[in-house]
Amino acid sequence: MQSENQEPIFKINLKIMLVLIISIVVISMLLFENLFFKSTYLLKNFGDLSVDPEIAFTNNKPTFLEFYAEWCEVCKEMAPQVSSLKDEYEKDINFVFLNVDNQKWGNYIQKFSVNGIPQVNLFDKKGNLISTFIGKQDEKKLREFIKNFEKEENPYEEIINAEFSIIQENKKNEVNPRSHG
Questions:
Q1: DSSP letters along 42-77, please?
Q2: In this structure, are residues 159 and 137 in contact, taking their beta carbons and an 8 Å threshold?
Q3: Are 73 and 165 in contact (CB under 8 A)?
Q4: Which of 79, 97, 128, 158 is spaced 20 to 30 A from 113 at the CA atom?
């Protein structure tokens, strides 16, 4: 008899624990929503915040060109820092963001040999490529290079970090022997 009385109490305790756990998760997500969703939100809006590349290379301003993808975890990690740089320097520097998944930017992807993202290319006001950063970069390092835009002579420099995403090939249009039945 006693075990029958304990079973409903156990079920009630289990329900209370489940409700408490769900409540804690929901409250945590609301309190820390910027940490969970800000990077993804920023990446989705990078394309809208971008200067058209044709304008950027002809308006006599230095250019910060970033190749990214919304699925790229490293891009998500860097998004708040890049957004901060943009907010600070957008009056003096063109910020161009090109999503590698958009076929519209294929010619730029080939032209700048993009095979790992994020890739940031920095150009002087004459449109000369002065730096290429591949992979996760420290905001301090990017700031340092941006401040050096003013120098007349900037030798080209490539900085690669092992933390980057390899561009995924778009195989939607690929034909193989089994695709025709």
A1: HHHHHHHHPPPHHHHTTSSS-EEEEEE-TT-HHHHH
A2: yes
A3: yes
A4: 79
- Give the single-character DSSP code of 167: P
Q: How far apart are the first and last CA of the chain?
A: 66
Please state, in angstroms and rounded to a whole number, the distance separating the CA atoms of residues 41 and 70.
Answer: 9
pLDDT at 153: 58
Q: Please provide residue 163's backbone torsions phi and psi, each rounded to the nearest 5 degrees.
A: -90, 95
Measure the CA angle with vertex 166, ends 162 and 170; round to 5°. 175
**pTM (two decimals):** 0.67
**Token digits for 68?**
């990214």
The amino acid occupying position 132 is: T
The number of angstroms, rounded, from the C-alpha of 73 to the middle of its chain's C-alpha atoms is: 7
- The tokens describing 28, both together, are 């945590």
Hey, is 176 helix, strand or coil? coil
Phi then psi for 73, rounded to 5 degrees? Answer: -65, -40
| Residue keyed to tokens 């957008």 | 90
Amino acid occupying residue 168: Q
Question: Which tokens belong to 152?
Answer: 């007349």
Amino acid occupying residue 177: P
Q: What is the mean pLDDT of the chain?
A: 78
